[in-house]
Amino acid sequence: MTSTTGRTATADPEAEYSELRGTEEPRLWTRPLRPLTPETSLGYEVIEFALVFLKVALYPWQKWLLIHALELNLDGTFRFRRVIVLVARQNGKSLLAAVLAAWWLFVDADRFEERLPPFRFKVLGTAQNLDTAQDVWNLTGRWCDTENDGHVPSLAKAVQKLQRKNGQPGIYLRNGAHYEVRAASRKGGRGKSAARVLMDEMREQQTWDAWDSVAQTTKAVFNSQLWGISNAGDVRSVVLRKQRETRIAEIEDWLSRGLDELEAYANGELVAPTSALFEWSAPDGCRLDDVDAILQANPSIGYGEITVEMVLQDSRDMLEASYRTEVLCQWVTSKVQSYISPRDWRPRRVQPAEISIERGERTVWALDTSEDDMTWLAAAVLTTDGRPFVTTRVKRTGMLWVPKFMTELAETSGHREVVVQSRGCRAAEFSPLLEEAGLVVHALDGGQFASATARMRDRVRDRQLLVIEQPDIDTAVEGGVVMDYADNKAWSRRKSKPVDISGLIAESEALYGLEMLTPPPPERVAPPPPAAQLVTRDAAPDTGWASFSRP
Predict the structure, then answer these.
(1) Which CATH number belongs to the domain containing residue 39 in this structure?
(2) Whole-prediction pTM value?
(3) Residue 134 counted as domain residue
(4) Of 196, 397, 501, 541, which one's alpha carbon is 20 to 30 angstroms from that of 551?
């Protein structure tokens, strides 16, 4: 990936950064149907409620979000049934959620008394564990708890019971509206319907159990709304990833519409998306010290305690994957400590046009199959300047196609060496089949496989390897981890899951085969017979036939 052209760190940060402010508008966001005013968005009401009653002056980005997320339909109901908010950590997500929960509870609960009476108005707060869900609840509770010196008397008077014990915290108002918290689990959201849901730290949902349970609680409730709030996730964040990808597709579709279609949406003639994404994140591929990218992902800079200098220090102190996820709100494959540093890997990439290989140069193939039944074919060869170049040639589901494909590849290319593991993996099944087809099979034992793993990292770290950009392999590098093998380390398919590293394993094996394994001796070919010569009668030797004459 290429980096952005934003500002980077300078020698005099105090002069450079003191006046900078975080970006108010998110990088990715769902557009409104019409201009947003106090008549078309309840966000203005929340902002005023926070300031007048809670004495909370929200940051510009928080105000922007409330105005856009609480957009109204023509009938006064919420346009969005689901709102996904992504922003870097420590930017005020919890305070925003607490303000929103308090407004829902004390103001919004009786807005549609006939369709949704207050006694049926339930605010449900969830997170990956009860303690996290209760953090937002505690902030809301402080404003209405008479035992707290900073409580708001008018809000406290509306409270019938504030329960902190028995593992089920709750705020119960005299009109029946209530706010409860549950852990995000298969059972945590089941029960009575909820009018409003706050899902904190959605990135931690690694299965669909909690989402399927909690999201269903709002379906049968009039004018319900679910907010999912988080920073970016990784490949394990299956729920958040799916919600984000779907919302981005809707945004791209919306931006491609013509003016006539947009007007039809605004007038209610066409059905508009009822879910929204608002994401404050750094652009993909930016430098870690890109100041503009930092401001895009951290909209509270210049308004709260976070400064550009703090973030730049994080870029030096944190693992890159963690920094990009937590601070730049970028999606990464995994938060594991990769065996091969992505920071070392990226500079190894070159454009295909930069690769020069002598015709007929020895090429070594390697095969590996993942637990998900995906087979990868990699190749390794030396370039004209003597550096090894590895790449993945084929990625295809299943294994049955391999023998025929490799036989034909060997015949057309002239390269017949194939590396596979000798046992302990699915690819070991290829050895006898490929040998029967006449290919030269290098079967690696466990020690050799560990050596191949280490050699791949060494070549990357020593800047001797050349690769081209292949997203699947880049993902494998970021998520690839190892296991102990004797005194060495070896790639672990299982520990790297859900990342599929089989393509990276195949490349490692091909490189090892090229540099460490002896190529087969050239086949002995019998010399061709001497070329035929045209012999005339005059030049023919005297064999007795020259004096022969017919009678």
Answers:
(1) 3.40.50.300
(2) 0.63
(3) yes
(4) 541
CA 501 to chain centre: 15
Q: What confidence tens digit (pLDDT) does each residue in 388-440 have?
A: 999 999 999 999 999 999 999 999 999 999 999 998 899 999 999 999 999 99
Count of structural domains, the chain: 2
526 belongs to a structural domain: no
Half-sphere exposure of 294 (CA within 13 A, CB side): 24
> What residues in the chain have per-residue pLDDT under 70?
1-15, 165-167, 184-192, 333-336, 523-551
* 31 and 109 belong to one structural domain: yes
Task: Find where tokens 């880049």 sit.
Answer: 474
The CATH number for 369's domain is: 3.30.420.240
Write b or e for each residue in 122-155: b if 16 or more Cβ atoms lie within 10 A of its Cβ, otherwise e: bbbbbbbebebbbbbbbbbbbbbbeeeeebbeeb
* Contact between 490 and 449 (Cβ < 8 Å): yes
Tell whether omega for the bond before 153 is within 30 degrees of 0, i.e. cis. no
Q: State the pLDDT at residue 53.
A: 95
The residue range of the domain holding 140 is 27-279
Provide the pLDDT for residue 336.
61
> Residue 201: left if φ>0, alpha if ψ -120 to 50, beta else—which one?
left
